[in-house]
């Protein structure tokens, strides 16, 4: 089983809202990732967690705040987003941070 | 600097018309080359991981090959359900472990 689940599937939020995206995997993977994908572009890496510690932050604005409560869960907290942050947000996981990454279905975010 | 270039950007085939997608890469120490399939609005679906030149992997109508400079995704007798965007990504041994460098993708349309 190579399933990564993400909730919600769709999210609409105003620029003053606070919301969270959730990602879960039960494959025993120890690396988890957040990506942002705009239309007709490849995924862009945002954050990497390895063994529940943040190992990569690709200079993402502070209005995006990741959290890894345990080895199976990854959250992305959103606050004061801009319309240009509207995108498909993808979570991925891998056995370690040098192994094949498996992606979830994504959360489609619209910021009004 | 690690770089991935995919060609062509778009490809239209008739059902049953075999073809190949190209992924050229420049990387300092290849850890792995990855092929994904992505349907519109969904997360990338893992297809293959290749680690060293000369390696080949097959799955149904797809076959991936790897040389020191490029990878090919061969599609034999494609069907309309093979229509999707195919993404190639590499992970190098220098820089941040866990970071995938993606190409821009090849959008394949197979007409019945």
| Proportion of beta-strand residues of chain B | over 45%
Topology of chain A as a string of helices (H) and strands (E) = EEEEEEEEEEE
Note the gap between the termini of chain B: 41 Å
Total number of strands of chain A:
11
Please mark out the parts of chain B with pLDDT under 50 across 5 or more consecutive residues, or reply none.
none
Gross geometry of chain A: globular
User: Averaging pLDDT over every residue of chain A, what do you get?
Assistant: 95
Query: Number of helical segments of chain A?
Result: 0
Q: Quick one: which chains have the greatest interface?
A: A-B, 27 and 23 residues
Helicity range of chain A: under 10%
Structure explained in plain terms:
The complex is a heterodimer of chains A (112) and B (112). In chain A, strand 4 (31-37) and strand 5 form a beta hairpin. The mean pLDDT of chain A is 95. Chain A is mostly beta strands and 112 residues long. Chain A has no helices and eleven strands. In chain A, strands 2, 4, 5, 6, 9, 10 and 11 form a seven-stranded mixed sheet that branches. With 112 residues, chain B is mainly β. In chain B, strands 2, 4, 5, 9, 10 and 11 form a six-stranded mixed sheet that branches. Chain B contains no helices and eleven strands. Chain B has strands at residues 3-7, 10-14, 19-26, 30-38, 45-50, 56-59, 62-66, 70-75, 84-92, 101-102, 106-111. The N and C termini of chain B lie far apart (41 Å). Classes of the chains: A mainly beta (112), B mainly beta (112). Chain A binds chain B through residues 2, 4, 6, 31, 33, 41-43, 45, 48, 50, 55-56, 88, 90, 92, 94, 97-98, 100-106, 108, and chain B through 31-32, 34, 36, 41-46, 49, 87, 89, 91, 96-100, 102-105.
């Amino acid at each position: 089983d190579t399933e990564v689940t993400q909730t919600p599937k769709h999210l609409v939020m105003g620029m003053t809202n606070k919301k969270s995206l959730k990602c879960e995997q039960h494959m025993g993977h120890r690396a988890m990732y957040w990506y942002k994908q705009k239309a007709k572009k490849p995924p862009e890496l945002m954050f990497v967690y390895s063994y529940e510690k943040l190992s990569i932050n690709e200079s993402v604005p502070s209005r995006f705040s990741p959290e890894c409560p345990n080895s199976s869960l990854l959250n992305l907290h959103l606050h004061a987003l801009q319309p240009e942050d509207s995108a498909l947000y993808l979570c991925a996981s891998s056995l370690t941070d040098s192994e094949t990454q498996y992606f979830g279905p994504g959360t489609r975010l619209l910021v009004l | 600097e690690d770089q991935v270039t995919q060609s062509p950007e778009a490809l239209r085939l008739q059902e049953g018309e075999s073809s190949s997608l190209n992924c050229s890469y420049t990387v300092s120490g290849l850890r792995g080359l990855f092929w994904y399939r992505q349907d519109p609005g969904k997360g990338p679906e893992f297809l293959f991981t290749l680690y060293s030149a000369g390696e080949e992997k097959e799955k149904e109508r797809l076959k991936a090959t790897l040389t020191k400079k490029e990878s090919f995704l061969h599609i034999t007798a494609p069907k309309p359900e093979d229509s999707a965007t195919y993404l190639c990504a590499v992970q190098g041994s220098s820089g941040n472990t866990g970071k995938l460098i993606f190409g821009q993708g090849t959008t394949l349309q197979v007409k019945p």
